[in-house]
């Protein structure tokens, strides 16, 4: 029987469903990502206390996350060095996205705690969501679907190869 809904099969999200949407600390994807190859971990850039990776479930093409290497859950528990590098890498990410994708604006923020909507609540991460004047359409509203015009691996490689470290 047809119900007019499209299905998006996402078996990779099963771990979140089985554990109440939150992986156990020993399975934290943000702790494991920097130890994998850049391609496997979706890592774009590694700093001293923090690193940048692609969001596996992006809101838009080029959606980045800035994470401390240390497993810490909220901003108030981050060290001054981690806070400074989160800011520095956020600026670099913005400059890089403007350069390679012609980004018009950004949504930047942190959801801290499960009740605040954090997908991985036990590991602090800041979102850098690139925005364009023409990126909004009715797909998410009427089809609960987000259209992403480029593959995640291709976007990761483009950003990593063009990362801007200077001011």
List keywords for this structure.
167 residues, alpha+beta, HIT family, subunit A, 5-stranded antiparallel β-sheet, 6 helices, globular
Give an account of the 3D structure.
The chain has 167 residues and is α+β, with helices and mostly antiparallel strands. It is built from six helices and five strands; from the N terminus they run H-H-H-E-E-E-H-E-E-H-H. It has a five-stranded antiparallel beta sheet with strand order 1-2-3-5-4. The relative contact order is 0.19. The model has no long low-confidence stretch (mean pLDDT 86).
Q: What is the overall pLDDT average?
A: 86
**CATH C-level class:** Alpha Beta
* Morphology: globular
Can you tell me the residue ranges where pLDDT is under 50 for at least 5 consecutive residues?
Answer: none
Helix/strand/pairing class, anyone? alpha+beta
- For the secondary structure, the number of strands is 5
Cross-sheet strand order for the largest sheet: 1-2-3-5-4
Helix content: 25-40%
Strand coverage percent: 5-15%
* Structural domains: how many: 1
Distance between the termini: 57 Å
Helical stretch tally? 6
Main sheet specs: 5 strands, antiparallel
The CATH topology assignment is HIT family, subunit A
CATH homologous group name: HIT-like
Q: Return Rg in Å.
A: 16 Å
CATH architecture heading: 2-Layer Sandwich
Question: Helix and strand succession?
Answer: HHHEEEHEEHH
Produce a short descriptive summary.
The chain has 167 residues and is an alpha+beta fold. The protein is built from six helices and five strands, in the order H-H-H-E-E-E-H-E-E-H-H. A five-stranded antiparallel beta sheet has the order 1-2-3-5-4.
């Amino acid at each position: 029987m047809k119900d007019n809904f499209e299905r998006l099969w996402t078996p990779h999200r099963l771990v979140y469903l089985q554990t109440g949407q939150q992986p156990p600390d020993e399975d934290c994807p943000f702790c494991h990502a920097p130890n994998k190859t850049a391609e496997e971990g979706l890592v774009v850039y590694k700093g001293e206390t923090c690193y940048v990776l692609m969001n596996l479930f992006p809101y838009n093409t080029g959606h980045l996350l800035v994470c401390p290497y240390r497993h810490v859950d909220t901003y108030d528990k981050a060290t001054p060095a981690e806070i400074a590098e989160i800011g520095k890498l956020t600026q670099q990410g913005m400059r890089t996205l403007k350069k390679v994708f012609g980004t018009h604006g950004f949504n930047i923020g942190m959801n801290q705690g499960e009740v605040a909507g954090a997908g991985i609540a036990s590991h602090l991460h800041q979102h850098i969501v690139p925005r364009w004047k023409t990126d909004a359409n009715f797909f998410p509203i009427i089809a609960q679907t987000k259209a992403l015009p480029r593959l995640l691996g291709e976007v990761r490689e483009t950003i990593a190869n063009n990362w801007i470290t200077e001011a």
